[in-house]
Design brief:
alpha+beta; five-stranded mixed sheet; about 25% helix; globular
Amino acid sequence: MPGFWGSHLGLVDLRLEPAAEGWRITDFTCRAQPAGAEDDHPLITGPALMAHHRTLRHFRRRIGRTEKPLNSYFALIGDDPGLRLVAMAQRWHVRQALRGSCWQDLPILTAAAPFRAGGRGGPQHYTDVPAGGLTLRNIADLYLFPNWICAIHLTGAEVREWLERSASMFLRVEPGKLDQPLIDPDFPSYNFDIIDGLEWQIDPRLPPRYTPDGRLANGDSHRIGALTHRSRPVAPNQPFILLTNSFRLSNCGLFGPATAGRPVVLDGASRTRDILRRYVAQRRVLAPMPAWAGAFAPCPAPRSCSRPAQPPPDIWTHFPPGSSQPVSTPTVSCICGCICDRQRLASGRMHAYLDGERLARASASPTRSGPEGSSRNEPRLGRCPASHPFPLIRLAGTFLAFARIASR
């Protein structure tokens, strides 16, 4: 295999010799040649140079501005402002397209998945658009694939099953057991749909309901709970319009059974990337906030994983609202790994955030890449400050955690 993103070139050399019936292969060699190992040849780069410059000018065109950075480091816990921007653009387009139809009064939900969230793509496989001008290159980074936007009619029960398929990304977690992987390495992030417009909880103590290829694995397992729409419980027969893409409607993969035979409200007439570009060009200045819709169900056990008998020396010192006395709270051993006792944290919301940090770090765990450019995700949790080569991400997560505590 030549690798992904043009990292390698697959070469096959054949040794031939003439024979009575033609040529005969006497020997062969196969290898993956790393791209960039050889100098550019002017006979190849010369004719392509002008087209290359035209392409750069096209993708460097500025079409808008974002007031906030758009990155996917915490996309697997729903904290992805870029994904939120895609959802906003999809809803804006479909609302206009359904105006005047029999579907216009139904609640609109929009499903979007992170395409770049670490995992098999490697530890650098993330979207990171800084605050400032947005170019066509940034739009292509936010939405990689040339999918068409589509909309289907689903009931509340079918929407719940859609979320069950997404929640199958998480492996089963046994309370009290040390260093458990949370992310299934065989589950690609582009199948982790986050539905904007709903709130729900995921119980990872239950086994996943579906396999990564969409087959029913545990029919009695129902991880999705507390499913609400606008703070009201979703009824099984409640009608919705779900915005998705043409890949989901291809009747294959994880969501194939979920879309087969469902009424198509809007067939793909526009590419999602073009809709995103038009939305940004119309709004000009954007400040998308990530939609924190999903959460892990609270665990009745006093601890979600073990920690040393003696509390770690590091502490957080903060002043609770209305108090002049500082409160010291033991920290976890690693913000991306061990979760300490729920009662030892100063804020329940902080515990939920650390749960999310652990999940996000599981996706971005160190990976091993083979000589052919393939990679194998090996999520590891627990006491890992020395093993994780992501100090900047860990520092950013720490800063966000303190900022959220200070703002409460």
